Amino acid sequence: MKLNKIYSAILLSTLPLTPALAAGLDRSGQSIAAFLQPGNYAEAGISVLDPKVQSNQLKVNDMAEDYYFPSAAIKVQATEHISIGLLYDQPFGAESLYPSNNPVFGANGEATQVEVETHNLSALIGYQPTENWNFYAGPVYQTVQGTVSLRGLAYGGASKLGSYDINLKEDEAYGWLAGFAYQIPEIALKTAITYRSEIKHELDTTETFGFGAIQRPNALTEVVTPQSVNIDFQTGVAANTLAFANIRWAHWDQFAVTPKFLNAASGNNLIDYSDDQWSATVGVGRKFNSHWSGSASVGYDSGAGNPVTTLGPTEGYWSLGLGAQYSPAANYFIAGGVKYLWLGDAIAQTGGKPVGQFENNYALAYGMKIGYRF
Predict the structure, then answer these.
(1) What phi, psi does 36 have (nearest 5°)?
(2) How far apart are CA 120 and CA 97, in angstroms?
(3) pLDDT for 157
(4) How many CB atoms neighbour CB 213 within 10 A?
(5) Among residues of the chain, what percentage have pLDDT more than 70?
(6) What CA–CA distance (Å, rounded) separates 191 from 205?
(7) Mean pLDDT on 273-302
(8) Residue 155 confidence (pLDDT)
(9) Three-state DSSP class for residue 25
(10) How far is the C-alpha of 311 from the C-alpha of 63, rounded, in Å?
(11) Distance between CA 117 and CA 143 in Å, rounded?
(12) What local confidence, expressed as pLDDT, does residue 1 receive?
């Protein structure tokens, strides 16, 4: 059952390519699998999520926007015992738009909407004292920015927060990660545990009320992206076959965005979550021949509490994923994956008061990745 380096890389690449509409603002899952590849390795990928989040009760056909985001990584085995790497992803985000003709979430031809974008660049250095162990750590550079508009009766109408806008200007900050991996090549076993620190941002903020009539600039809003732990595991279970699993914990239960003037006007947070996120993916990867391999997986996400914010009214999910990979030559491959997600029903709330139920939600996620060994 011992795997050579190329075969090991092929099956590792069949791990789920596509992220999901996860708890809180979680998107990418913050994998470091590329850094744990043998030898010198580089990859680039793109993922797309097409969700449908609806409420018959509130007559909302779909409020979740499609989104896509890229990822990239490079890892160099500098010496027999030292490796270095650089990973790029967009770990957190949100993109939602309600129908403007729905009075619960729209007014004056304008709609409730949110856009949150992050970028992460993680630099790693690893030390491999033996063939079995790999200890790694490094700094993380992160940027965050966002815009939110609240419209409609859900926020009290134009006389309260139903005519509120906020612009959170891009801020950069630093955190760190550390972890270790252990492998037994003879049985294709590899496990890794990775911790990422929280990262604190202070974003320059402009808030406006009354459809822009009252402007409150020059404030700071604190946003702390959560600390997390990822556990990755794989092992050979038969000839040409691997089983794999990933478990992720993210500390969302103390997350809150509390703009100064919104809080003064209402006493509420703009966004907050009540529970931590737990998610898991398990599956099987198999090599069919020298050119083709594939994988199948199931996934679960706990969500970050219910009721939830109207800006993301789902609670966790179950998922089913399939992946395939074509390797024209031993040193590079092209892989694709797709997932179907059953998104959990949730009660949307604002200001601590329920607005309505969102149910029968789902999403389709798909992605593509190119890997190259040099």
Answers:
(1) -90, 5
(2) 25
(3) 87
(4) 8
(5) 94
(6) 42
(7) 92
(8) 94
(9) coil
(10) 9
(11) 8
(12) 37
d(C-alpha 260, C-alpha 234), whole Å: 47
- Token pair for 40: 């010198």
Q: Is the backbone of residue 213 left (phi > 0), alpha (psi -120 to 50) or beta?
A: alpha
80-107 pLDDT per residue, tens: 999 999 999 999 999 999 999 999 999 9
Q: Which among 273, 276, 286 is positioned nearest to 322, based on CA atoms?
A: 286
For residues 118-131, b (16+ Cβ closer than 10 Å) or e, as one string? Answer: bbbebebebebeee
**Residue type at 70 in one-letter notation:** P
d(CA 339, CA 31): 17
Residue-by-residue DSSP string for 129-193: SSSSEEEEEEEEEEEEEEEEEEESGGGT-TTTTTEEEEEEEEEEEEEEEEEEEEEEGGGTEEEEE
What is the rounded average pLDDT of the residues 320-330?
Answer: 92
- Provide the pLDDT for residue 239: 86
Q: What is the pLDDT of residues 172-208, one digit of tens each?
A: 999 999 999 999 988 889 999 999 999 999 999 999 9
What domains can you pick out in the chain, each with its CATH number? 5-373 (2.40.160.60)
Type of residue numbered 170: E
Q: How far apart are CA 108 and CA 87, in angstroms?
A: 44
pLDDT at 23 > cutoff 70: no
Exposed/middle/buried for 212, CB within 10 Å: 0-12, 13-18, 19+? exposed
- Give yes or no for a contact between 248 and 230, defined as CB atoms under 8 angstroms apart: yes
By residue count, the chain amounts to 374
Say which residues have a Cβ less than 8 Å from residue 130's Cβ, sequence separation at least 6: none
Q: Which residues are CB-neighbours of 187 under 8 A, at least 6 positions away?
A: 1, 2, 235, 236
CA pair distance 302, 281, nearest whole angstrom:
12
Q: Which residue has the tokens 């270790």?
A: 180
β-strand partners of 140: 122, 175
